[in-house]
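Same chain as my last thread, 637 residues:
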Amino acid sequence: MINGFVKVAAVTPKIKVADPVYNAQAVGEKLKEAYSRGAKIIAFPELCLTGYTCGDLFQQKVLLDGALQALFQVREATRGKDALVFVGLPVARDGKLYNVAAVLKDGELLGMVPKANIPSYAEFYEGRHFAEGNRKTVDFYLEGEVVPFGTNLLFECLTMPGLTVGCEICEDLWVADPPGTDHALMGATVLVNLSASNETVGKDEYRELLVKSSSARLLCGYIYASAGEGESTQDLVFGGHNLIAENGTILSQSKRFMGETVYGDLDMERINAERRRMGTFGKEPAQPYEVIGFRLEIEETKLERTFDCTPFVPSDEEKRNKRCEEILSIQAYGLKKRYEHTGLKTAVLGISGGLDSTLALLVTVRTFDMLGLPRKGIHAVTMPCFGTTDRTYDNACKLARTLGATLLEIDIREAVTLHFKDIGQDTDKHDVTYENSQARERTQVLMDLSNRLNGLVIGTGDMSELALGWATYNGDHMSMYGVNAGVPKTLVRHLVRYYADTCENAELSGVLYDVLDTPVSPELLPPVEGHIAQKTEDLVGPYELHDFFLYYMLRCGFSPEKVYRVAKQAFRGQYDPKTILKWLKTFYKRFFSQQFKRSCLPDGPKVGSVALSPRGDLRMPSDACARIWLDRLGTLN
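reply #2:
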């Protein structure tokens, strides 16, 4: 519950058809297991207290009475337990029979939600037995109790704002206008579906698609519990396909035919952050709703959910390659439009032998090929100075020649030294002026060359550098179009590797692989024995950590302590908590203090769900204070 995490469970007990006594015991045993795992919302299948496949036995009062007695038995099993429980049974009311989800908490029957859509096609003939559920809530009198009864019931956690649960039953998910849509519009952030979905070839894939798409479209958690072993196999087989999804992602699902309980850690803070971010979510439905409060103890959820340490990079190789091709296309199409608009036919970019300038050159080459322009119109400029090493210089030159670009070499040592003399800078004083003067001189060279050659200066800086402000203001910070502005550093590496793996040019691949093996560095300090003396990640921290922080802060809206918590889990065995906390503080300090650089960024294409453009995704004042974010990290260890 702390940090917004709620453990939920979708459970398929092994039942006996038309034996409510046995089934209540089976449900009770599964409840014990789910309680022991810390589940706070627990869903059982449709009609599980009798079995879905009872057929005309549903007309027997003996079975219906037995189902109610079984419900009371399950209710007792919830007493003293801290979880919201959904269990299915048939319920007779006012001369009609309803397929119902009973909602239980700590020995209380909070409400009954009837199935809204009754299928009577193909193998389904529920209309023979059940009536459509009433939308408007009515009072149902059950052995002296008054129980709210209707589809438009929501269950709101009074101790955890933002956790509100709505319920659908099986077919309700499969129809054109699911009840869950109205539930979500009225504030439900978690939907529970009690189902008895039989198995046919390929149906599991469609079922998974429905659950994923519903959770994505409605920005919610979705718990789908389906009938399985014990149901009659007279004509149908039920596989117990249980699924838990959040915002379009399947967190867990069972293997069919195994009677497997699945658990998932829903992130309610992220769900609510997504809804706030979208802004277009939220027309109220016409039907009235009744909201019933319940309480859960606020405690730390033992997380079983995993967090990818590289959220910008798909772990699956096939998906990663597809993503890389897509991003290269987005970058190239963005630059292509700029050339079509300006009518220019020349590009100027600085190449250092590092990852970012390499990617920018590859994108520019792709753009020129798309436009049918000769690659000689790409002027790749290497500008050696005090920190340049033979390795990066050689790679820059080889790269330009191999790609067929025009290579220009402009040594800026003399110009920078003269500039130092003009401003009174000691050449032996290796401070920020020493470093930034080189970066600004390079940018001046590129800008003036582009004027002379009638071209565009292509920016090379990536999104991770922009987040940290790791760019010289009006130096490498500036260009005429920044092709890498939407690409995080961890993804830059994979884009270059993808190009190396697929270019079918052994010489080019060799150069690219060596670029990939070169430490990330601005090379602004003199080398030590011919080797790079200034390694970026030693100064600002590992980019894989900063990209992780950036994703979960901006994309997911996590608080600093929550980012720290999930980072410790994601990077367990790679970084100790002290190191993670150190660089997390660095991240927040730099992210806030360096906004002024992002406020005047050149144009550049957005490629993913996180972007820092001041004209698009991030409208942030340059004078915003980081204090309250850093204060929340002050007590952590």
